[in-house]
Amino acid sequence: MAIRACQGGISSLRKHIFNLEQLTLRICTNLFSFRALNIAGATSFLCKHIS
Predict the structure, then answer these.
(1) Range of the domain at 48
(2) Which tens digits make up the pLDDT trace of 4-39?
(3) Cα pseudo-dihedral 30, 31, 33, 37, rounded to 10
(4) CA 47, 49, 51 angle in degrees (round to 5)?
(5) Is 49 domain-assigned?
(6) In angstroms, rounded to a whole number, what is the distance separating the alpha carbons of residues 23 and 30?
(7) Is the whole-model pTM more than 0.70?
(8) How would DSSP label each residue in 1-51?
(9) What top-level branch of life does the organism fall under (predicted)?
(10) For the chain, what is the domain count?
(11) CA 40 to chain centre
């Protein structure tokens, strides 16, 4: 009984850690793409004003 409860706790903890990793990855990806968009926007803005 105690062993089964322990295994259940470990598997739910693993699932929680996996979800946390996925969330972190998604946040990092969003930040990176947002930054890339900002850089692209700033570059095109500068190019328009220079030419």
Answers:
(1) 22-51
(2) 888 888 899 899 999 999 999 999 898 888 888 898
(3) 130
(4) 65
(5) yes
(6) 11
(7) no
(8) -HHHHHHHHHHHHHHHHHHHHHHHHHHHHHHHHHHHHHHHHHHHHHHHHH-
(9) Eukaryota
(10) 1
(11) 21
